[in-house]
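Exercise 7. Predict the joint structure of the components listed below.
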Amino acid sequence: MASLLRFSLRRFAWSVPVVLLASFLLFWAVRATFDPVAKLRQGRDAGAVQREIERLGLDRSVPEQYLLWMKGFVTGDWGTSTRTGGSVSSLIGQALWPTVQLMFWGVLLAAFVALAIGVYTAVRQYSAGDYVLSTLAYVGISLPAFWFGLMLIQVLAVWPVQSLGWSEPPFYFVGLHTPGQSGFNLDYLRHLALPLATLTVTLTASWSRFARTAMLDTLSSDYVRTARAKGVPPLAVVMRHALRNALAPFVTIVALDTGVLFGGLIVTEQIYSIPGMGRLFLQSLQAGDVFVLVPWMFVVALAVVFFNLLADVSYALLDPKVKLR
Amino acid sequence: MPDFLLARRRGHTALIAALLAVGVSACGGSSGGGGTVNGAGGGDNASSTSDTSASSAARGGTLVVGAEQEPDCADWIAVCAGNIWGSYMMQTTTLPTAFDTREVDGSWTLVPSEVLAGEPEVVVRGGKQTITYEIDPRAVWSDGEPISSADFAYTATQIRDGEGIFDKTGYDQIEKVETPDEKTAVVTMRSTYGPWRALFGGSYSLLPAHLLRGKDRNALMKDGYSFSGGPWKIEKWQKGNSVTLVPNDRYWGAKPKLDKVVFQFIPDTAAAFQALKSGQVQSLYPSPQVDAISQIKNGIPNTRVEVDAATGNLEALWMNNARFPFDSKAVREAVAYAVDREAIVERLYGPLGVEDPAQSFVTPLVGAFAGSDFSRFSADPAKVDEIMEADGWARDGSGIWAKDGRAAEFSIVSLAGNKRRELTEQILQQQLGEAGFKMTIANTTPAELFGKVAPSGDYQLGLWTLIDQYPEPSLSATFSSRSIPTEANGNSGINFMRARIPGVDELLGTVDRSTDQAQRRAASLEADALIAADVPSLPIATVPNVLMTSDSIGGPVSINPSEGPWWNLEEWTRG
Amino acid sequence: MSAQLETPPVAAERARSQWRVVARRFRRHRLAMAGTVVLLLLIVCCFGAGVIAPYPQNEQDLLVGAVGPGTDGHLLGTDNLGRDFLSELLYAGRISLSIGLAVAVLSTLIGTLLGALAGYLGGWVEELIMRIVDLFLIVPAIAVLALALRGLGSSPLTIILVLSAIGWTSIARVARSQVVSLREKEFIEASKLLGASTTRIIVRHMLPNLAGVIAVNVSLAVAAAIIVESTLSFLGFGVQPPQSSWGQLLSDAAGLLGTDQTYLLIFPGVFILVTVLCVNFIGDGLRDAFDQRARRR
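Solution:
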């Protein structure tokens, strides 16, 4: 366990300079793209613009501004949104929760389904089931997510009402709860189904391909052949020997993709009116709200680093061949 | 995608990036092209009238409205002023105003609201104007405190002296507010002020002095507030999700019939319409974008559609009078004859029953002050040739007009991502191309367009919407030469086309300063005619407003072009 | 010395026969072959749209407006401005396919070169390049894309450049690890001993051995670029009119879901789906064809 801790710390230490550099570049890019006081300029109080420039130190050089911002960020003062006038940390805090929910369920669902498909198609290679599932996986990878999402709404929520005469749709597609409701209940699940399907279709498809390849690799490996030769029952071979070894690369890829997914929920959140990180980004971008954009990217970058670390650690834990350095 | 609008206020210029796709307002009822359209072409939807009889109206029930946009915050005089959705769903429903926009004899007018005991007394003496507001003795805030003259004084000083106030027009003319007694407020203006009825109304509301004075108003209001002086109060604002309104029990006027109204935020148009079709929401106020109109045309079962053509939203082709080729009046006039505005309006809004182009820069909301002098321009290729040739232009090898070695080539700027405008630009490109003008499209973001491109005059042709927010004329903000953005006026005017039309400044000055309605009206009409003669730009369409409600909603459902679709929400019922 | 001099022709001979094996394996991959044929057909139709499209680009008929598929000689109907939708789709396909192909080529080029350089040279060069790759991996791609396109303006060229600038990292990682493993192989050592220059070793020995990885990556990158472009269009950062792409057509029609004009939403989606599917099949075929262990499918 001590070695694992040391390993994690080492990896983390490595990523610190990268994250810092990334945050500086993003800071610079965002400042170069947007005028932080654009909204004030649209008003008529010229004095207000000047006061704000001085208050925020916008007349200083970009590196100086960055250090100023970093200082605030580290000490918990994330600044004020020009769009809402509210504190940036609370905006991001509020947006994190729906996104975390979507990600949690989405990754869980996609990983299990993908693994099941991967194992099945690898074990039953060239069977009809393999062909059908593989083809579906290809279609899943090839779909533009927003298009698929819109089609899901039409087919699974609107048609039952319009054509079958149901009094209400089986699945909802606005938000995560009916206003006034909260918690984990049927209402939540009915809201969750379609966004999850949209979110996971590409993930499930590509992960299932990955799982299939990983399984095929381990199934053709020497130790699996040895196990078979020793008369270990087929199911046990698959589960105990092949799957266990295929799991390491699979979990790694899942963890890596999860980090990227964090910022990639924009489309799903937009279509399903979910007030998460993706929508916060879109709104901030449209409003040119630099004071939200920079911390947003920083938080997402940290999430990616975290999941990369998780990927490394899980690989190390799951793959007996890897020794922690 | 949200689209941004430019709003103009009288006298001064306010550039709102008002986060709404289209409209501010529309006109209810019979005047000026309003009416009810049932989805043509759908076939299966039952036709119904807009006013379901009151007798069947039941009390109680919850209404869920799909809202395209969430207000950024609820501080209606500073950071989040001018946010149309916020103003419609929260401000109008919860905060009292001195004057309301109502239809009187077929035109929209500011009339004393329930806050006032009657029409204020106006006295002009020594070049100063005093307005005496008598407050209705029954008027109270939701905590039982009376709405008082102190509220008038507090609101006036907050707007006049506050920091980061969105627009101080009018309020900056206030010399003092006296409060001889709790229910009498006397406002003294430094000079005469024509649109005085828009004070404590228009786009601002009265604020409760007893709750806010001496405190941080912005902090208390921005995330929603629990006080109310209107029929509704904000029960809950769940950020990103919904705003819930419940009746204000202390309201002294007609009480709401519904128990609860929920505004659910649905940013995606496709999802919003699907939500209406599947019954998740019972009302939508969609911006009249192409896709929304196709949805309406296609018919949405069990849904009525209110369309109001007589709104305060003017979409126009803005020409930069200081830049080639629009520095030439001949070119401006030729372009006006080259554009088939009827065809554009028919294509964009035809399915809503809106077919007539706008013929004045004064919108129908301020209809009493509007002429129709632009009606002389309709598509006429022969006229284009005649005007251009008379001005010394000749067509070059590719059929494009040229003069002194310069071809009539220019680019148009609008807001990227706005489908309707992109469509309009493509139509214009084709029409102008046929008439011998080469137009390229170079769209940009709202912040860029209204923060930089338009104020600095770095464009040739532009396409955007200007909004009148209440029924007071505001031409001077766009057409007075004093409103050309310069260093001297802090780049604050919105005469982005740099129009300098002889005689117009004086006439618009009269409109702004006179307190004689007939005189103001005559001056406005005269200015309108002078503008049309000079063709500094070309009005294209009054953007209609559309309100969709499920058949289960009863009551006098209609759109108020200034106060929005939910101005009379208290009368809505659900059966 | 003389024996060593004979090596290159033999190696070249072996390489040629290896290519033949790859080509034969690829031809036997039915889905990949079908994908190739369909994709080529699409490319020919889109880039030959000037000749093939039934109507000129952007020819409007405002009076007609939108009519459904099969009406008045419009095989796929017309859009809201009365433009023949099949023609619009073909012209839009030019942009979509150009973006897909250009991004794939450009990002693969950059990625392979930098990756190979890192893997071959090692030391601080490798460290530098791989840290840059890390940098790109941790910043949220879609956010950077949207930000960059907002800052630079969305023309097909900027979209290509920005997508390539972000997309090169994955191939760089793969190329680097391949080169690292190749670096230790005997024939490279031999060339080094012979005094071959670094450039020569990379170009003559490393790159041919990377062919498989490169080919697969190109196909995946085409698919990814087309999908990402459509997503960017949906979010409002796609190409601007009068230019259009499949993603742009798709996002234009998103709000028409469930109306009589749903076909305007279906067709561009199908074009994207079919194209990306073809490209993915080709990628799969290539992977199998280059795979030493040669598994079918």
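Discussion. Residues 517-534 of chain B form the longest helix (18 residues).
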